[in-house]
Design goal:
alpha+beta, globular, about 475 residues, binds protoporphyrin IX containing FE
Length: about 475
Amino acid sequence: MHGTGPGGDVVLEFLRSPLSFLDRIVRQHGGSVGLRLGGEHVVLLTDPALSRQVLIDQADTFCKEGTAFFPGSSLAGNGLLVSDGPLWRRQRQLSNPAFRRTAIESYAQAMGSATRQMLATSWSGSGRRDVYSDFNALTLQITTEALFGKNLSAEQGAKVTGAIQTAFEFFAGRASTGFIIPEWFPTPDNFLYHEAMASLDSAVYGIIDSRQGELAGSAQSPQCLLDNLLMSEDEFGRGMSREALRDELMTLLVAGQETSAILLAWTCAYLAHHPEVQARAAEEVGQVQLPQVLEGAEPSPANVQEMRYLQAVVLETLRLRPPAYIVGRCAAIDVTLGSHQLPKVCAGTTLLVSPWVMHRDPQHWPQPETFQPERWLDLLAAKPAMAELSNMGSNGVYLPFGAGPRNCIGTGFAMMEALVVLASMLRKVRFLTVPGERFPAADPRITLRPASCTLLLEMHPRIQYQAAPQVELMGSRTEITMTNDC
Ligand code: HEM
């Protein structure tokens, strides 16, 4: 056990209200608390130096294997999220090129066009919408398109998204019960899940095989994440096996779809509840250099790099509502944390690091519970947002995408997606709160979702007035409009 902590097993207290439990236990016992949780020895860490030791400095000693509270699934297989040791290292090395800046910029096309489609259809009028549900559909479309590009036929697309939705419903059901029923156990929902997995595998292996055939011996440049992964080789000229590729593709879907939807939904909730912030963000988006906006009709990667206020809004949302509110590791050996004043952590102990608690520590964040994008502006004037998202941030207590070698490989993807989607929306739509509704509560499951998996907002078209005549650009007619938040 570690530090001082409450006596007895606290699993029921934790399950009843995980966030209040975390806040209270850290207030009472400090930055390193030894707990017994469902029979497991657990150390809850919120001390910045100890968290850094676990996630960054001694990352090899604190592995993922054996982490009691983060079970894998046959959907994501042995992909990056759960693999460990040499297998993880090789897979991460082979996957990294697919997440370099230029690669991410190429996926921005899918982000912009899916958003345009949503704005032209379900979000075209005024009304009340469940933005959590809308963003889940949007990010599923974006992630699937970024993964497979044009290699996905309409039929395969329907098969993949249908199977993924069945799997996500299955996981949501399992998470809400609080019990983990093994996937092999013959229950009706396990049966449906396995049927969906079989259909998904046949579609995904079909796409992998046909694209591998097309790329063999050709000099094509990569068009999507699948291409990037297919073309990646280690120092011996060897790529990923077919099975590893399937597992990584599904891992990216699992890890990247809902987390991004949650971030977008929370951001829109903050914008609706803080109209002055929304007005400032919309004004910034409206002032983007027009020629770049016109090229693709949606703000381009270069445009969103300039939108410092919008970036600050996203960073502040990730501070107060980190979708990954807790991350876990397992001590591979007996190890001392920090100075020798603390008792040793025994091999097999689970360590939980909580961005939720660290992001609202009053020692590091003035007025921690207040949504204040302005707190980021000086930092963003000096450094790009990505610098704040690595290495636990400037103050050492900001880690919405984790930290160290196992940090989120999709950080750049998620930030680009959030900024492109939000900038596109703020040009067209105004978010308002539903009369009488308070700011939605957070429901910590595997991720930090809005309570009841619903987030209702009122939406109205943003008043646009024409500032200049229509222009012809790249063969398509585009209107220059200016937005007005009145
Ligand atoms: C707002 C959106 C996102 C958040 C908050 C988020 C958060 C995180 C966090 C905290 C981790 C580290 C977990 C740990 O230390 O145990 C992680 C890992 C990971 N994320 Fe994300 N993520 C997001 C979006 C994405 C996207 C868009 C992708 C892919 C397209 C992605 C793919 C992954 C993968 C593969 C890992 C495992 C990396 C490894 O262990 O090598 N994530 N994510």
